[in-house]
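For concreteness, we quote verbatim a single protein encoded this way:
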Amino acid sequence: MKLALKPEKIFLLFAIFLGLLLVFLMPPLMGADEQYHLSRIYSLSEGKVASSINQGMTGNFVPTAVHSFVEFWYPMIKDTHIKTDCAQIVRSSKIFTDKDNLQFSNQKYQTLYHPLAYLPQTMGMIFAKFFTKSVYWLLISSKLFLLAFYIAVGYCAIKITPVFKWLFLTFLLIPTAMSLGASVSADGVLIPIAFLYFAYIFKYTFEENLYVDKKAVFIFSLLVIMLALVKQSFLISLFLFFIPKKKFGRFYFYKILAIIFPGALCAFLWSIVCQRWFIPLNQSSPVLQAHFIFQHPFIYLITLLKTIKFCFVMWLYMVIGVLGWNNVFLFPVTYILYFCMIIMNSVYDDSSIDKAVVTCWQKLLLFVIFIINFVFIATELYLSWTPPYFTEFISFIQGRYLIPILLPVFVLIGLLFTSCRKRTAIFNYVSYIFLFITYLNVFVSIFILYYLKF
């Protein structure tokens, strides 16, 4: 028995519902670093790509109303005991921009992100400026445009991949991922692009008589460039090597070079451009810390192992759903149910393609490249956020950073259980129930933390 609706259409239904819920139910600026993203997006909507340094801060001049809007909601960011209501949201919507009244805005690391990381959000703000000067509605419009981008690209990813469609759906509907897609964060752009990249990788790996031709080289190259520019996620491109060599036909080396080199070049050039805007935080010194890693690689390896030991459980929670400023928790059973659903949808696939044809080398490659990406993320944060010669665990790794690279890990789990029977309708119904419970929990948790007055 098969359901009429395909996974990509199921994704549309759930994503639109939860996405709109998060856009309008989550109070303004309650997403992590949302005030800095808002400021940066406003600058980009005015055509200000370059930033400047003012009194030890990196950023741009924006209307004072943006600062007033941040100050209006700032008490809720600092104190979770403060509640809001519709009347307060309406009052905040009456804070209007005035281009003649400007103030310098600290945009921290957001200024280091390529404008591509904020393209949907910026388009949303430009669109809203034709109708309103309200900072609140400019923010909402930016969120809606990013949500539309997240859903559209996520839909395409699920539709394109010939395998693990339900696993793609489950990952794209993770509350953490959806909250990013319904915000103004650069992660809301990165996650669907990464999943679309994986979808094409699996398409050219598992579909018979499909080879990496010139059109495929162009698509892969474009996606790699986007990954390289959005939050400097170039190393995700290494998962390309999961595709069997025979699928590239002639000129294997040149095709690989044509796909990877443009992204590497773009990432390198952008890093040179934005280097002048970088201000180290927490007394960090990237040069000294890089020198320390090369001098003491085993000590740094121990630091990474400490990080995994102390943060592993926290990451499990944060990947599934610790929303807001890492203060909106779900019920403990929800995390267990969602994690079980991920495992179920990785093991019980609905495709008719024989995954047993994947070699042991390909399976090992998925895990190795995941480790490479994890070490890169941890090292990037170690260089830019921690003091020199720091050897304790790296506490700045957020669960949301791991979502784009976790999908291949669970694909690997699915590939290791190829003997399991095919997916039946019961697994679909179980997924619907788990998703309903999860989203009901999201609604209740947000309402309790931000709105319920005892």
